[in-house]
Structures
1.
Amino acid sequence: MIDPKLRLKWRRRIRKSKKQVAEAGFGADVRLERYVLRRVSRLITVRRFVLTWIMLLVLVMVGLFVQSRQLIPYYQEVRAVSGGTFREGILGSFTNANPLYASGSVDGAVSKLVFSSLFKYDKFNTLVGDLATHFDVSDDGTVYTVYLRDDVYWHDGEQFTSDDVVFTYQTISNPDARSPLFSSWRDTKVEAVDDYTVNFTIPTPFVAFSLAMTNGIVPEHVLSQESVSQLRSSTFNSVNPVGTGPFEWDTLEVVGLSQDDREERIALDAYEDYHHGRAQLDRFVLRTFRSEDRLVSSFVTRDVDAVAGLDAISHELLAKVDYNQYIIPLTGQVGVFFKTEKPVFVEKAVRQALVRSIDTAQVLEAIDGPVFASDSPLLPIHQGYNKELTQLPFDKEKAVTLLEEAGWKMGDEGVRVKEGQKLSFSLVAINSAEARAATQSLQQQWSDIGVQVEVTLQSDSDIRSTIANHEFEALMHGISIGIDPDVFAFWHSSQADILAEDRLNFSEYSSSVADDALESGRTRSGDELRSVKYEPFLEAWREDAPALMLYQPRFIYLSHQEIAGFHPIIMNASTDRMYTADKWMSHRQRVDKL
């Protein structure tokens, strides 16, 4: 039972609570009426005033937004910054990253990213130290003492020493290794003086020897365990290469079922302990393409950030995208080499007429894009180049006179004839847009003076075989000279011999005067003296006309964004662009001005 007094007490409390609730509700109604409903009705009379304040507030906010946008350029700018992944598309195929065997544009590019060399070229194409700091040359010019850095580490953490340098060059000079660099190093003795000093001893003085020390160095502690004869097929070359370069190996992926659509994708990561400082890019990916159309298409769809290896710029395909273009001259030459041993070229007058009948300006106009004309076996940048001793100048009337005086008379078919033989020859060139345009111009201009020329365009693999065996009458091809004027390999008679290692004397040119000058020029260190020594060679070459020089080759590089740190002025080879890859930046963002 509940106590009656307690029950009464609860009832009083409940009634009191109900009364408080009722009073609170009444008070709320009164306040709502007084402060909201009555005032809302008054807004109608002051609506213009309210709208004015609202519009003023909106204008102030818009003004602040516009002002902040206008002031941003004064305090911030869009700038290239470090980081990100750079994807380069390149024409060709990948086979080998090992610098002892790397050949071709793809292999060479990968090799330079993964491996370092004793010396390399900067953006001005000047030789600078890489793994080495400097070198000394003995008084007789036969001993080069190279001083190495002591802060270099391989990608696996081992320290780089002179043992690696000695191992690299001894392996190259070992015929069992089958390195394409063998002929250049077989007569060079390499010895370690201490852990960071190496002596190179050459048989005779050679001024340009330092320029040869730009091939990649491989790790002795890794490859010494393998048989020299098996190095060419080692997994080190394409599965797990270990270098000292700015990027270290990550993965290799092969995609595509058919040969035409097959691609290799090589992914490299920035090496944290790189001796020149960590690369600006976090990751570098190279994608190979077998055809220019697929390469350009990938660029247009932005699957790659840049493309290398194009023979010409396809304006029709690239019309859909904005891009930056870099057209960089190379220290080489493209020319027509007359095989002087062939009957049609035995007569000097015929060779002179062929040179004089070509207006090289017309040839260059036929090529899409800017190129630099070449008119001598030396380039204008070379010590010894003499503008007074260039090839015979264009003079079609003189060319006709030379042929007439040599007994070549115009026949009924518009082709000159002598003793029943037509003045005709075949011209071999690589099958490319650039070569097609140039050979068509040459063919037409020679036809104008009664010379019949049959042009044969060959694939890259076929023309390599043709050149190696000298199976041509005339050859339009490029040669790589470099920054030194030593052109011994291309014009000395010994380099035409069938037993010569490379046989780069495509014209099979032979001149005792030229030979003596070339031999003397490559052993003299003084610039003025070298120029004097090369004069007889230039005079003989001009008179004998063993070739027609046309232009310097160029390297075409396209990118979506301007690449900070990429600004070469001239290069020796297309792969030399990778010498500065550790400085490249393509990622952009807004940052505060300094």
2.
Amino acid sequence: MNGLTMMLIAIVVLGGAYLIYGRYLVKKWGIDPKAKTPAYEMQDGVDYVPADTGVVFGHQFASIAGAGPINGPIQAAIFGWVPVLLWILIGGVFFGAVQDFAAMYASVKNKGRTIGYIIEVYIGKTGKKLFLLFTWLFSILVVAAFADVVAKTFNGFAADGATIKANGEVAMTSILFIAAAVLLGVILKKCKLSTGINTAIAIGLLVLCIVLGLNVPIYFSTGFWHIFVFIYIAIASIVPVWALLQPRDYLNSFLLLAMIGASVIGVVLFNPQMNLAAFNGFNVGGNTLFPYLFVTIACGAVSGFHALVSSGTASKQIKNEKDMLPVSFGAMLLESMLAVIALVAVGYIATDGIVPADMTQPQIFASAVAIFLEKIHIPANISKTLITLAISAFALTSLDSVARVGRIAFQEFFLDSSIKDEEMSPVLKVLTSKYFSTAITLILAYALAKVGYASIWPLFGSANQLLSALALIACAVYLKKTKRQGVMLWLPMIVMLVVTLTALAMTIYSKVTALMGGTSQTVMGDILQLSFAIALIILGIIVAIQGFNKLVGKEDKMPNMDA
């Protein structure tokens, strides 16, 4: 199969899923365009801030995508293109898009509260506490992994000390993006201009940043960028969403959509051949198809992190309930499209069915798309730099959101609705402070980031998919308690629970074996991964059991908490 045929199949499947399955879910669950959304009802100027559909879509899409839909399919390509394509399409439609929509729907109907709150109301306080602890640990993993990715993308020096111009250009452009986002935030907040004018301003700022960044590169080491990134996300997780999160995501959405659009055009014109085998077997290089494929391809198919964004930040910005379908369901399907393009890219770059071992996943993606775009006379060096910039923008935007999600999870863990603010003890006031919760989250993430992205990613994938299973259980319980049909969530949650518990058990076994046998290559890294894996699997199993008890147990009286 060639790349063009594969992409056309994906467009038909994903587009049809939105028009048919998405509308089916809306009909089954119900949407009230006249309802007052939490963005207005709970408006506080910090987290609850109404935003136009395009702005929230930009935030949702840029936040959930990260580097995942590029890294996952390329890593999983060792099994061949058929299982990768099938999991992206089936998972994206019936697992991921459904989960994202359900999480946002449940949140908007419950005053924009997180999945943790949904668990508290519909499953129990103990379940909520354990889920919040799970979410916090998971957020630390995400921040550590993506911060390391960004720092290495910005690294201005090669091993021999020579400067890397492309990285310097990406670093400068990314810094300019941050400054431009602050300016755009003020414009969007204060000037009240039309959508068209706001879009023109955003695109103008985007182009200006790129032009300046390409001409004025800056060079610093990975260590410097580690510190810079953590300072940035510390600020981003605290300031009001209108000041940085919304405008930055809005800016990035144009860059990311342009990257996807250019990639699609490149594939259409170039029509790359797939140099991967259709299927390489169930065991490749010591990695088994089950569960490796399903935890490696997360963001392109289904990702628990999406549920945190859908219920943690995006739901607080929805102006009208009808926006939920395009913002959640639509953004997930677009991410699946990006995952298919990544599969086409690695399929073309592969030689005799072998994926290059000397290139990172973003490098493989950027190199392939740059070759495709030469068909429309875009110089390969420029397009490669811009694509790398877009990937780093994905990762930075995910960091913005997940740092805020981790901060909120830590705060909610110690909050008790029965205790008023003025009755809190001094210690409790510190623990629920956004400054302390941000600091403790990022300090631990920074320590873990020093272990390295490659060591963190396998555990991150397993934890991410277990989080998906827990979010699906919580949403299924919510739908049952509010007399809505939730049967479409049952198969995804059971499959993801089996997959992730198997993957985590395998991780624990491999790390214990390596440490006890003296074969561990990075002792501290293995100890950290082992500790996280044990904690996550225990928390996950307990929350899952509590959820299933509510799901299959007798109906009990439950107040309708819908907004």
3.
Amino acid sequence: MGEENANREDLHSPYAGRWVARVRGRIVAQGGTPKQALLASRSSRYKEKPEIIFMSVPFNLPPLIDKIKDILPAEQEIYLVGGAVRDLLTSRFSPDLDFAVPSNGIAIARKVANALQADFMILDSERDTGRVIVIEENGSRTYMDFATYRGADLEEDLRDRDFTINAIAYNLHDGTIIDPTDGANDIRRKLIRACSPTSLSDDPVRILRAVRQAAAFGFTIDKPTREWMKQAAGQIRSVSTERLRDEIFKILNGPKVSAAIRALDMLGVLQHLMPELLKLKGVEQSAPHVYDVWTHTLAVLDYLDQILADLRVGYDAEKTSDMFTGLLGLRLGRYREQIADHISSALNKERTHRSLLFFAALYHDICKPDTKTIDENGRIRFFDHDLKGADVVVERALAFNLSNDETERLRGIVQYHMRIHFFADRLEREGQTPSRKAIYRFFRDSHKAGIDLVLLALADVRATRANDLTVDAWSIYLDIARILLENYWEKLEEVIAPPRLLDGNDLIRDLNLTPGPRIGQLLELIRENQAAGKITTKEQALDFARAELPKLNGES
């Protein structure tokens, strides 16, 4: 059996990327591997010996691939596998490159790392897998994992993977593709299909991965795979918390978050991951809400995604025909770069800020079912749902082993998410914008979560009123958002974090006080009044403290 690459005239052939059997110059069969093409040809030309060739496809390979080829000997069998090949076939770039080798995965990884002067680590000693981390001058990272075949050979390794679109291998040396499960065809059909009926039960975290990749690529999941996902849903609890958490946050960081959450619910997975969310279903809300709490929450995710896209650097708001998007860009467009910097500043290197914000959005009304009351006029209210919701999101954050910084950020977003609505309500009813003192208190309590709260509030009001939202009401929220962002980014020392004019020792010495809680209370009152513009000097601060002291002592 002869194996060789086809000439360039075959690049646009309908067989591109496939192995074909050719008899006397005519293609008689094809397959995803040389063996498949040979067996297919024997069914019709069993007496003839076909020529087996690979029909080339053009690839824009990462430069690192050539470097690895140069480092390793020509006889070293090595394949690029998994998502990296899928991304090459869809003209995407992946910062994660997985390689499969017959043996010595860790040793090969160490050799590559040494040659590239890159970082090296043993990723999985049992599976003989080593990782190379290449850090570019701009700080970007490329992760390259070298793993020994999971099975007797490459084909067995590929068939044991999750989905056919991820079960394709690219031979670094001759540019051929091995595709035993017809994954390339599934990529063309935009279909996610399990490699085998047991793919999901073998590793239930693959259920989440299927949903994530369907959303990310705009693919559909084929019917048998969906059924296997439902059957394996109950086994999701056998997966480690960290693996489940990581997949959830990847979903939250991707496109179509609300569709992915709906899919997890329909597949019966959500009840095993975040069962508290299911209580939101069917919980009615009074006007101006147009949806129940569950539908509203999913709509918030959609609007949050849209708002972040509309405020991204480089977006031209003048080209939109949507009035709400146009007004958003007009009022807040000046802060695109600051918002981008804020969203890019992750609290944990393993998870993005964006995914954390979407997690907060998912939980911002989590305690509405528990706090629902109906007054004598039939109006539905949810008193303290924000405060109680903060406790619930902290519980979930701890269950998912999030960092302390992430947990506190989530607490702040959920706990204070009603503040901006109060500001907007007062502006609409009384024509009063937030005072400097109110702005100071808002950021004092929320810290950097204040920026997240602005973005969430805009998505929240759009999801609350949906098509009933008027331009006037939207403008009020944009006014509040602009005031808060303007003070945070343009008047930081003046309003948000005024410099200290004195400290506790000054108060103890000049007012003849003893250490105690009154010192902290006085210092905070002074800073509030600094933010309000009423105190600008140390002398004014001391005079103010003298005047306030009797009130703190309970004197009339």
